[in-house]
Amino acid sequence: MGDAEVKTSAWRLVEVGRVVLFATGEYEGRLAAIVEIIDHKRVLVDGPASTKEKTVPRHAVSLSHLSLTPIVIAKLPRAAGNGVVRKAWEATEVEKKFSQSNWAKNKDRIAKRRALNDFERFKVMRLRKQARYEVQKNFAKVRASAKA
User: Fold this and answer.
1) Which residues contact 20 (CB under 8 A, 6 or more apart)?
2) Which of 26, 31, 33, 40 has its CB surrounded by the most CB atoms within 10 Å?
């Protein structure tokens, strides 16, 4: 028989050091790192952030309240203390990496769009119509030149 090649999936795994985003609850929208896996439904998280408003205290949380991000703090020991987590968090530049991700940019765009008033939404609609008209006009020119 041939050698069996076992590959892990490319999906984000629940692992110590994985950075998570709170989807619901008191800390919604904040980042934290998995410090310990309690069981198949719960993990211990700790979120040392640069500002007081973004910090997440160490506590157990259900995985159903979290979203796993692609960011991992490499070689974080199991049940690491707050100081160790903070140093690794800053060395990995977690907040900078997350703010540059498409996920964070999309979140910001949605929040900005929700904050618009009626007149601002109207202006956005008009600008989108103008842009669409320009695209259609250029496409018509290309199509006409292709037929000729």
Assistant:
1) 31, 32, 33, 34, 43, 45, 66, 67, 68, 69
2) 33
CA distance 134 to 148: 22
Residue with tokens 């719960």: 42
Residue 33 contacts residue 18 (beta carbons within 8 Å): yes
Tokens 């989108």 sit at which residue?
128
**What is the arithmetic mean of pLDDT over 71-89?**
93
Query: What does DSSP assign to residue 114?
Result: H
Residues 21, 50: contact at Cβ < 8 Å? Answer: no
Global pTM reads 0.76
For the record, the structure tokens of 89 come out as: 């968090």
